Amino acid sequence: MTIGHATTRTVPARPADFSGVVRARDAALVDGTGRELLLRGVGLGNWLLPEGYMWGFGPGAESPREIEALVERLAGPSAAADFWGRFRDVFVAEADIARIAASGFDHVRLPINARVLQTADGEPIEAGYELIDRLLRWCRAHRLWVLLDLHGAPGGQTGTNIDDSPRGLPELFMDDRYRRNTLRLWRDLASRYAGDTTVLGYDLLNEPLPNEWQHTYRDDLVRLYRDLTAEIRAVDADHLIVYEGSHWATNWEIFTEVWDENSLLQFHKYWSAPDRPSIAAFLETRDRLGLPIYMGEGGENTADWLYTAHRLYEAHGIGWNFWPWKKLATPTSPASVRPPDGWDRVVASVSTAAPLLGRAAAGAVLDQLIEAMRLENCDWRPEIVAALTGESPASIPAWGFGFRGPGASYRAGGRSLDGLRADDTVTLRFDVPADDPGNPFRHPGGRTRTDGDGIVVDLEPGEWVEYELGETTDLRGVRVVGPDGRAAPVVCEPTARGVRVVATARATLARVVLGDADGSSTVDAP
C-alpha cells in the first residue's frame, strides 16, 4: 500500500552547541542557548578501559590488567607497549567520531580507567590527558559533546573486571588512599576542563557497588558523592555533575535529596523488559527531586529490543547513550571488528599454561588486529543505528508500539503479557513457546535472536497501535505481517510521529516491514 511521509520526528536531531555548558533546568537538560535537549549518544567502551568480552576473552583476560598481561605474555614487553600505543590511535580515531556524528548522535560517553590518567601516588599522567584532549578536539570539530565517565576508579568501585580493580574488591570504599586519589583525580579533571563546553559533564562513578556491596557501603557512596561534588565545585562551578545509582546503576535508593542543582541522575538498562514499569522508579525520582534523568548505558541486544527501548526513553523525555560503539565480531554494535586469522589461538591462550603462538606469530596477529580495528575495515551494522534512532529501520517488532498510553499510542482493550507492558491494554502473547518467558530479553553470547522474537500483537477490528519513526523514514510501501509472514488485515495511516496500524478484521501482528521485501536494510553507511 502507498501512504505519505510522516512530517515531523519525535525528537529533533541536531549537533552539539558549544556556546555554553549543558545545564539542568526544570527536570530537563538545556544547551548553552537554552534549548531543551534529549540526548542521543554512544559509549566509547574498550578504548581507555579494555573489557575482555569485547575481545572474545573469558575468565583470565576480562579486566584491563589481565588483558595487558596476556598481550605481554604473548608478544613480549616491548611489542606489547607498542601494541597499546597503536591501539589507542586506531580503536577510536577521528573517522569514528565523524561517523558517530553523521549517524545522528550528539554526544559520546568516554569510559576512563584511572590508571591511564593517574599514577599510584595520585600524580597526573600527561600522556593520558593528551588522549582526552585529542578526542575533545575531534568531537568539537564534528559537533559532539563528551561525557567524561570514571569507569575504573582508583582501587575499583565495583570489585569486578569492569573497573580494573586490582584484587576483585571495591577497594575505593575500603582504603583511604584510593579515596584520596579519586578525589584528586576528579579535581584534576575539573580543573583541566572547566570552561570547555565540549565537555558535557562529569560522570563520577560507573555502576558503583553491585550485588551485596550496594548495602555494605551505601552510606560511604553517599559521602563520597558529596565530597566529589565539593572537589569539583571548588574549581568548576558550571559543568553538569552526573550521579549513578548503585547495583549496576539500577538502585536509586540513595537519591533522597538534591546534592547539586546542576546535576543529572543516571540509570543503566540491559536484558530486561523495555516498558514503563521497568523505569517507573526512575521517573518517580525525577518528579520528586526535579532533576533530569538519563539512560547512560544499555544495549547488547537485538535490533527489536533496541528500537523499542529507545522509543520508551524518548517518550518519557529521557536522553540516552548506547553501549558500545565498536567491538570484535558483534551483531549488536554499529561497528564490528573482523577478527584476523589466528585470533582464535590468541583467545585459546587465555586458558593455557603456555601460549599457543610464538612471539613472532602472536605479534603478526596483533598487527593484523590493529588494522582490522580501523573503522574503514569494520563491518558496518546500519540496522543497529536505525533501531536506536528510529530512522528508516528495515522492520520493527509489532510489540514495539509507542509508550504514550491509550488514545495516543494505541486503542485496544486486551491484556498484555506478564512482565511486559503490564500497564498497557494491548493483547500480547508468545506465538511460539518461550524458553524463558519470565525474561524473554536475555541476550547472552551475542545471539541475534531472543525469546522476544516470538511475541505478537492481537487486535480486534477497529483497534490500532502507533509506531514512532524518524522523519527520514520512507513510509511508502510499508507492510504489516503476521507470524507466518503474510500480510495482516490492517490499514496504515501516517501520523506526526510515524505510522498508525488499524485492524480491519481480527489480526495478529508480528512485524512492521519498512525495508526491502526480503527484510534487508535500505540504510547506507553515512
Automatic annotation (TrEMBL):
<keyword id="KW-0378">Hydrolase</keyword>
<feature type="domain" description="Glycoside hydrolase family 5">
    <location>
        <begin position="84"/>
        <end position="326"/>
    </location>
</feature>
<dbReference type="GO" id="GO:0009251">
    <property type="term" value="P:glucan catabolic process"/>
</dbReference>
<dbReference type="InterPro" id="IPR001547">
    <property type="entry name" value="Glyco_hydro_5"/>
</dbReference>
<keyword id="KW-0472">Membrane</keyword>
<dbReference type="GO" id="GO:0009986">
    <property type="term" value="C:cell surface"/>
</dbReference>
<comment type="similarity">
    <text>Belongs to the glycosyl hydrolase 5 (cellulase A) family.</text>
</comment>
<keyword id="KW-0325">Glycoprotein</keyword>
<dbReference type="Pfam" id="PF00150">
    <property type="entry name" value="Cellulase"/>
</dbReference>
<keyword id="KW-0326">Glycosidase</keyword>
<keyword id="KW-0961">Cell wall biogenesis/degradation</keyword>
<dbReference type="GO" id="GO:0005576">
    <property type="term" value="C:extracellular region"/>
</dbReference>
<protein>
    <recommendedName>
        <fullName>Exo-1,3-beta-glucanase D</fullName>
    </recommendedName>
</protein>
<dbReference type="GO" id="GO:0071555">
    <property type="term" value="P:cell wall organization"/>
</dbReference>
<dbReference type="GO" id="GO:0005886">
    <property type="term" value="C:plasma membrane"/>
</dbReference>
<comment type="function">
    <text>Glucosidase involved in the degradation of cellulosic biomass. Active on lichenan.</text>
</comment>
<dbReference type="InterPro" id="IPR017853">
    <property type="entry name" value="GH"/>
</dbReference>
<keyword id="KW-0812">Transmembrane</keyword>
<keyword id="KW-1133">Transmembrane helix</keyword>
<dbReference type="GO" id="GO:0008422">
    <property type="term" value="F:beta-glucosidase activity"/>
</dbReference>
<keyword id="KW-1003">Cell membrane</keyword>
<keyword id="KW-0735">Signal-anchor</keyword>
<dbReference type="InterPro" id="IPR018087">
    <property type="entry name" value="Glyco_hydro_5_CS"/>
</dbReference>
<dbReference type="InterPro" id="IPR050386">
    <property type="entry name" value="Glycosyl_hydrolase_5"/>
</dbReference>
